[in-house]
Amino acid sequence: MQIMVFFSLLLLVCSVSTNQTETDNEILDQQISNQQPCPQDIHAVLRELTASVAVQKNCTRIAHIAVLLHMCGFVAFSTSLLDQGSGVIGPFNTQITLIFKHVVTNIGNAYNKHTGIFTAPVRGVYHFDWKVYGYGNVEAGGVLFRNGEHIFIAYESPTSGGVSASNGASLLLEVGDQVSVRLWANSRIHANQVHHNTFSGHLIFTM
């Protein structure tokens, strides 16, 4: 879909004549704006580049537009549990969503560090990885959820010392689907500045 959009845009701009009108510019601007979802700042840059193309009649500027359109499909994030300090989470008698507050990467701004939820901005296949760390004689577990559906669990039951558990999954997501990691009921995890507990994901390809 994104490739077709790009080639349509390429043909339209490169066929612009020296008699291009403001109406032509508005049509092109609207076509760019209609490509959803895409970050608002990308829209602003695209509009600026489009205006520049219209004035300069320079189709090499299309390369910049192509890059920005492609960026609209770039989604990747990497987080860990605590932004500062250390602490213990759990155990609870029910599952709770883990909020990974330390954000290392959040390209596309699809991960919300205030809720711990990743929301798919485009339809496509995404890959997620998560890891939990526990210490002592209480089990440690983290479950990947999609829209409230249990997908996979990372789980360990230590007898002494520290243990970690990790897992991964590739999911086909629709626009607006939500993915998060929940603490397994009656389990406990330990977090500190070493960043044992992590949650990461990225878009593999759109569909």
Q: How many domains would you count in the coordinates?
A: 2
- The global form is globular
CATH topology of the largest domain: Jelly Rolls
Q: Strand tally, please?
A: 13
Point out poorly predicted stretches. Answer: 1-8, 15-20
Strand content: 35-45%
N-to-C SSE series? HHHHEEEEEEEEEEEEE
Can you characterise this structure?
This protein has four helices and 13 strands. The protein has helices at 2-14, 22-33, 40-56, 62-71, and strands at residues 76-80, 87-89, 96-97, 102-107, 111-112, 117-119, 124-135, 140-146, 149-156, 162-173, 178-183, 189-191, 198-206. Helix 1 (2-14) runs antiparallel to helix 4 (62-71), helix 2 (22-33) packs antiparallel against helix 3 (40-56) and helix 3 (40-56) packs antiparallel against helix 4. The relative contact order is 0.19. Residues 1-8 and 15-20 have low confidence and may be disordered.
Walk me through the topology.
Blueprint: H1 2-14, H2 22-33, H3 40-56, H4 62-71, E1 76-80, E2 87-89, E3 96-97, E4 102-107, E5 111-112, E6 117-119, E7 124-135, E8 140-146, E9 149-156, E10 162-173, E11 178-183, E12 189-191, E13 198-206
Antiparallel strand pairs: 1-4, 1-13, 2-12, 3-11, 5-6, 6-11, 7-10, 7-13, 8-9, 8-11
Helix pairs in contact: 1-4, 2-3, 3-4
Short summary:
25% of the residues lie in helices and 38% in strands.
Keywords:
five-stranded antiparallel sheet; alpha+beta; 13 strands; 25% helix; 2 domains; Jelly Rolls; 4 helices; six-stranded antiparallel sheet; single chain; 207 residues
